[in-house]
Amino acid sequence: MKSIKYLFSILALLLVTSCDNQFEEINNNPNVPTQVSPDLLLAGVLRNSINDQVGEAWGIGNIVIQHTAKIQFVNEDRYLWGERNGVWNSVYGNMRNVQNIIDLATTNKQNNYLGVALVLKSWLFSMATDAYGDIPYTDATKAKSEGVYAPKYDTQEAIYAGILADLTRANDLLGTSTEVIAGDILFGGGTASIARWKKLANSLRIRALMRISNKRNVGADLQTIVADKAKFPIMEANADNAALTYQASAPNQWPLYGSRVGSFDEFRASKSLVDRLSALNDPRLPVFARPVERPSQPGRVEFVGVPNGLGDTPALNFNGGPQGVSRVGLPFACLVCSSPAPVPNVARGLLMTYAEVQFLLAEAREKNLITTGSAETYYLNGIRANMDYYRAIVPAEYGINVTPSADYFTQPAVAYTGTTQQKLEKIGTQKWVALLFNGLEAWFDWRRTGIPTVTPGPDNLNNNRVPVRYIYPQSEQALNAANRAEAVARQGTDDINTAVWWDK
Predict the structure, then answer these.
(1) What is the CATH number of domain 38-255+345-503?
(2) What range does the record give for the signal peptide (predicted)?
(3) Domain residue extents for the chain
(4) Per-residue pLDDT tens over the stretch 117-163
(5) How far is CA 130 from the centre of its chain?
(6) pTM score above 0.90
(7) Is residue 502 within 8 Å of residue 160, measured between CB atoms?
């Protein structure tokens, strides 16, 4: 009996030893990698973050800046805003993988990937701070590495200092290592993409400097960039646009292509947009809006925008109902929004364009923040670049001619004449047109400049005030209450009317 017990003991010991020796091997799935390469992370970050930007433009950006208006479910258009967490979730969700790229690239001395990641980090955090104000920045990605699960909120001033430093560093890093960029669905990857990432870094730096130009003297920094294009290249043509090109087939089509027609058609061209472009005989109007289905006279081509900020009933019944107001332009439409079906990959996911850079430089030159170049030349370049951009992407079968009339640039509302303020208004208005569907950028820029005039609609629910920020996500009160409370005490009441630092 003792020998049997001894035998069982030996067998049990052998079994335990055998399991222990093979435990890690058995529980390690060779098909699930524990570390992902930067190229795989980069493609996902670009796709997700740019698609999120398109969604934010559609849901609120175009509305608040009055490119579009709503005829149903009009709360957003009346400023009845609750939580708007899309930017917050997108930025902090995507920053996890951006930080992973930064860590991998730093360890492997891959300066090209590191430079790209710093550009994306700067862009993402600029969107978040412009939308909310003070936000977690320095501690934002330290949960995994340092166990920081309740990150402090940095001041917007400090965040912008970090953004500008990272963009400068990105310019210095790009092109200083030998790895070939892969996973770059924005610029195509390879050696050629490095030059375009450098141009984006410096162009975003110009945007950031102009954003804080009412709080800081940014002239010297701007002049340093424009005076040395060899060291600090910027976008020089539409070929440099940071614009994601979509595919003709799912799942990487224009993000709105799969929308339900009912949901899509809640959004219509705004009266502000239609009236301004009609007054200029602007060839971009049929790009942004479609003729009404029931014109005032049979066979007549008419564009009618709906006023922003109407209540449900007057919005739905404006000009006789939905058939009397212009739908959003065919290049941006969904599969079932027209017959025949629109091309699924006309519109682009915009991050930044050459036209915007030219308008920024026009403003900077007009304000004497830079001494290089002509404000008028920058301004005209911006208009032509935006028209050329749409001329290049709109399919011939749409029958849209984006060529301006012979007198377009000489008419009083476009010609670069008048007082400094009148010139700035022309720059700002043309930039407003060019920023359509570029996320929240037109809203951010309007908050800084006040151009063009944005008048709250008659049925607005915010005491005739246009919102100037998003409120913090309610989840922050539960998960990061002390740091959120500190930010609110420093910044001001957590509501849509509290200006952020650069806007005060």
Answers:
(1) 1.25.40.390
(2) 1-21
(3) 38-255+345-503
(4) 999 999 999 999 999 999 999 999 999 899 999 999 999 999 999 99
(5) 11
(6) yes
(7) yes
